[in-house]
Amino acid sequence: MIKRYLITLLLFSAAGSVVYGYYQSYSSNPWTRDGQVSAYIVSITPRVTGQVTKVHIDDNSQVSKGDILFEIDPSLYQATYHKALASQKQALALLAKAKNEEQRALNLEKRTPGAIPVLTLNNLSNAVETSSANVQLAKANVEEAQLNLEYTKVYAPTNGYITNLSLREGSQVVANTPVVALIDEDSFWIEGYFKETDLVGVDVQDTAYVTLMMHNNVQLKGHIKSIGFGIAKQDGSTGNDLLPNVNPNFQWIRLAQRIPIKVTLDERPEDLQLRVGMTASIKIIK
To answer: Which residue intervals define the domain p-hydroxybenzoic acid efflux pump subunit AaeA-like beta-barrel in the entry (predicted)?
Structure first.
């Protein structure tokens, strides 16, 4: 009988030691399964309005910085550019005419003082300044028209992946309205949410180990890039009749809030592709 109690006591002691060891490990090295792969999403936005004539990309394709993504019908912008060039030539001709008339009047006034009224000389000088300003305006219009013509070809601003593409030839795009989503392949990080009580003593640059649900046999090493400084409060927001929303809680239970942290991977296997939204587990080594 005593032997049975002794064995039971030893089993409970061993189990307690294991549980205590896990608790110590968890308290000193916080861990969460609430992690997710994130990256910056670049919204590709055309700068001019028009019909799409060519699409050079496919859905879920990889592009490099500077690759052409799609083209917009340039005919209207070519006409505007040629019109601006013509206006510039006209402004230059009027400036030359104004300068010739002013110079002629100045030469005559030099040979015969008083032959040209002062008011006329002033008007001729003003005409030259006005023509010069018109030339500058015409030059700016040419530059603007040339830019708009160049904007009919849309290029990738960074390396990345095209996702959820619905753009097709013949589609009408509007200036400053996003039409293509590009995931920046050089910006991936892992975002995790830890209880505030688990982050005591955790600092930026602490080592972190990440395990992806899709690749649970691979452990990725990284470091903490940043720790969030705030989260949105749930109580106190305005509800119906301009009254505050207050959620009921239990006085004997105090739930710890979760704080977001960002983990940057130190290195990544070449055959492992990160995808935005993948589930991850994160363990921090203090």
So the answer is: 187-284
62-71: b (≥16 Cβ within 10 Å) or e: ebeeeeebbb
pLDDT digits (tens, 9 = 90+) for 92-146: 999 999 889 888 877 877 777 877 787 877 887 898 899 999 999 999 999 999 9
**Three-state SS across the chain?**
CHHHHHHHHHHHHHHHHHHHHHHHHHHHCCEEEEEEEECCEEEECCCCCEEEEEECCCCCCEECCCCEEEEECCHHHHHHHHHHHHHHHHHHHHHHHHHHHHHHHHHHHHHCCCCCCHHHHHHHHHHHHHHHHHHHHHHHHHHHHHHHHHCCEEECCCCEEEECCCCCCCCEECCCCCCEEEEECCCCEEEEEEEHHHHCCCCCCCEEEEEECCCCCCEEEEEEEEECCCCCCCCCCECHHHCECCCCCCCCCCCCCEEEEEEEECCCCCCCCCCCCCEEEEEEEC
Q: Is residue 14 part of a domain?
A: no
Last residue of a domain, one of 104, 125, 151: 151
Q: What is the pLDDT of residues 233-269, one digit of tens each?
A: 777 677 777 888 877 776 667 778 899 999 999 988 8
119 with 201, same domain: the answer is no
Q: Which domain holds residue 119?
A: 74-151
Whether the model clears a pTM of 0.90, i.e. scores above it, the answer is no
| Number of structural domains in the chain | 2
